[in-house]
Amino acid sequence: MTTNNEIVILGLLAEEPKHGYQPEQDMGQRGMHNWPGIRFSSFYYILNKIEKKGWLTSKEISSGERPMRKVNQLTPEGKKSLAEEVYKRLVNPNPRSSDFELVLANPPILSTDDYLFALQTYCDNLKERLQYTQSKRDADSEAGIQDHIEILFDHSAIIYNQN
Q1: Treating both helix axes as pointing N-terminal to C-terminal, what angle do 4-15 and 40-52 enclose, rounded to 10 degrees?
Q2: Reduced to 3 states, what is the DSSP secondary structure of residue 74?
């Protein structure tokens, strides 16, 4: 079974070979840190896990005066696994799970004032994320982004608007 975190990293590496922390930087530039749940501390663990599965190879490369850097590249098996997982999730996506639904499923344990304050904070956070996503998309659009990245920004904006 391929985890969502593995799919995120495989997808970033499918674009082109990248050195160690470059996919993590790409996630930040694309506003992806809010939803995949990959923390910098687990990033290299996931890279090593994917490499052990035979889905990527890495090699040390030196460029000019810079120190050696490890560059990661998907193997044909990695591309095949990624394609299978993307197809599977497009055909039958898992519904999004969220802490919010978990809270709604529990009995009212907070005071009405606490619930109202928490809900207002939740709405404020959604508005803030929406503004951030829209400004990030606008900035990246001016620089010229690929269609699939633009769709990612649109999708995030829709989710934040629905909530």
Answers
A1: 80
A2: strand
